[in-house]
Amino acid sequence: MIDTTVDVINKLGLHARASGKLIEVTTKFQSSIQLGKGEKMIDAKNIMALLMLGAGKGTALRLVVTGPDEEQAVTDIKALFTAKFYEAD
């Protein structure tokens, strides 16, 4: 199990397009991927759950990944957040 954090740094936060890109990454892994803030953790493979998080710019999210490909999953997810979901500033 890997328990870490990711920061939402893109201008619009975890909106529909960014959530869609995150789903593209998370669904290719077998591992369980949970994302959340505070005590609320959601399945990061569920688009509706991601949208309901309401994670705006500046939000620190907890990322918990458990499974056979957890290391690659964390690497790819962190890369997506760091790249600001490949959105123009």
Question: What is the CATH architecture assignment?
Answer: 2-Layer Sandwich
Strand content: 25-35%
Helix content: 25-40%
Low-confidence stretches: none
Largest sheet: 4 strands, antiparallel
Structural class: alpha+beta
Given the structure, what is the number of helices?
A: 3
Give the topology, please:
Elements: E1 2-7, H1 16-26, E2 32-37, E3 40-43, H2 47-53, E4 60-66, H3 70-82
Helix pairs in contact: 1-3
Compact description:
This protein is α+β, with helices and mostly antiparallel strands and 89 residues long.
Annotation keywords:
89 residues; alpha+beta; Histidine-containing Protein, Chain: A; 4-stranded antiparallel β-sheet; 35% helix; 26% strand; HPr-like_sf; phosphotransferase system; cytoplasm; Phosphocarrier protein NPr/phosphocarrier protein; HPr-like
Question: Please, could you describe this protein's structure?
Answer:
The protein has 89 residues and is α+β, with helices and mostly antiparallel strands. It has a single domain (2-86), classed as Histidine-containing Protein, Chain: A (2-Layer Sandwich). The chain has 3 helices and 4 strands, in the order E-H-E-E-H-E-H. Strands 1-4-2-3 form a 4-stranded antiparallel β-sheet, covered by helices on one side. Strand 2 (32-37) and strand 3 form a beta hairpin. It is globular. The chain starts with a strand and ends in a 7-residue tail after the last helix. The mean pLDDT is 95.
